[in-house]
Amino acid sequence: MSIQDLKQKFIEKYGEDGVEAQVFYAPGRVNLIGEHLDYNGGYVLPAALEFGTTLVVRPRSDDEIHFASTNLPYVATLMVSEIGKLKSNEWIDYPVGVMVELQKKGTPVTRGYDLLFHGDIPNGSGLSSSASLEVLTAYALLTLEGAETDTVEIALLSQRAENQYVGVNSGIMDQFAVANGKRDHAILLMCDTLEYELVPFVTGAYKLVIGNTNKKRGLVDSKYNERRQQCDEALAILQKEVPSLSYLAELKPEQFEAHQGKIEDETVRRRAQHVVEENQRVLDSVEVLKNNDLKQFGQYMNDSHTSLRDLYEVSCEELDVMVEEAQKIPGTLGSRMTGAGFGGCTVSLVHEDDVERFIKEVGEAYKTRTGLDGEFYVCGIGNGVEQLKGAN
Ligand code: ADP
Ligand code: MG
Fold first, then answer.
1. Please, which residues have CB within 8 angstroms of residue 300's CB and are 6 or more apart in sequence?
2. Which of 196, 279, 295, 392 has the greatest count of CB atoms below 10 A from its CB?
3. Could you tell me if the CB of 94 is within 6 A of ligand 1?
4. pTM metric for this prediction
5. Where does the chain bind Mg(2+) (predicted)?
């Protein structure tokens, strides 16, 4: 939907009242490489996508906050004084959770607003429509309240909203990427310390093709907890060899090579191997991206998938099939699962001339082999949260 159409919808819904509505935008995100490293003290390398969530918002002269979204039928009105009093278990919990955090931070919402959200991110596929919605709300309200918009702070408070108010236990990567993304850049991020660097990633004639397996995720939580335990087990053993070690991902591949024999459980050893090598791949990716060597980066993407499939064992038949078919297309530089695994999306780097063929051939083969309809989204790397001033 164009901004003009969205503003038209806003007027149809809330009417004209002489005050100009403002438009804000926050992207979705994809993790390019560095999977299951965040809880192991390693780096991730996400990027903001070129599609996301848009908000048309207008201050009101009373203290009623009106919520609506073009994506979902549920609408609500809250008084400013009612913020956070009652959880609805509806989508508004995300923006309301953000308002609760704004209050706690001492920059509360002080008056009513008319809000209309519109999202282009498929919900629940792992492209972080929830983080997009949170960061968008925080940035827009802070701007309209005349408060400072520090995007690192916004990421943190949005994460707290999701963890505490919505009750979903997620790391900081999603909100951080949505808040701090930049066109033609990936974000090298250490999730623990929030140390980060914008890494030039000019995709040029290549596109990111995100493939949604549409496989319903099962067992994610129990498998996730099991992986964490296995990593803790490996860490405890390796700390006896390398006393200064605080996290698995701090180990260099050579150090791991030297000490891995101490890990008797072969499964645990393979989990640790993934963590150490994947972290090194992220660092190597940054180097090759700085030299604009997309081909080598593509190779690292492929290697990452193999490691997640064989060593960390968090892939699944559907992800493997989609990646395998993607890698067969001549214009594909690399392809891998992205996110926690067991379903969700793949990300591939594909020459623009081959994108159409990619979608057709990978889609058909995926359907034949799994019985599922995959979906594909083509995009470049876009900006993080921003006000769309020209749109006003
Ligand atoms: P993901 O973040 O992977 O897309 P989540 O389950 O974490 O999936 O978040 C999806 C939820 O976020 C949706 O079910 C809905 O409640 C909310 N949401 C996301 N985008 C919008 C939107 N544009 N309008 C209303 N609610 C949205
Ligand atoms: Mg989410």
1. 33, 281, 284, 285, 288, 334
2. 279
3. yes
4. 0.95
5. 130, 162
Calculate the alpha carbon distances from 134 to 91, 211, 342 in Å. 11, 24, 25
Residue 256 exposed, middle or buried by CB count within 10 Å (0-12, 13-18, 19+): buried
The answer to whether 28 and 380 have CB atoms below 8 angstroms apart is no
Provide the pLDDT for residue 126: 85
> Is 174 annotated as catalytic?
yes
Q: How far apart are CA 233 and CA 216, in angstroms?
A: 30
ipTM beyond cut 0.85: yes
Answer whether residue 218 shows pLDDT above 80: no
Ligand 1 pocket test: pick from 130, 136, 220 the residue with the most ligand atoms within 8 Å of its Cβ: 130
Topology annotation, domain 3-201+382-387? Ribosomal Protein S5; domain 2 (3.30.230)
Please give the distance, rounded to the nearest whole angstrom, from the Cα atom of residue 29 to the centre of ligand 2.
Answer: 10
Nearest Cα to Cα of residue 380 among 344, 358, 355: 355
Q: What integer pLDDT is reported at residue 313 of this predicted model?
A: 97
Strands 113-119 and 64-69: parallel
More confident residue, 31 or 218: 31
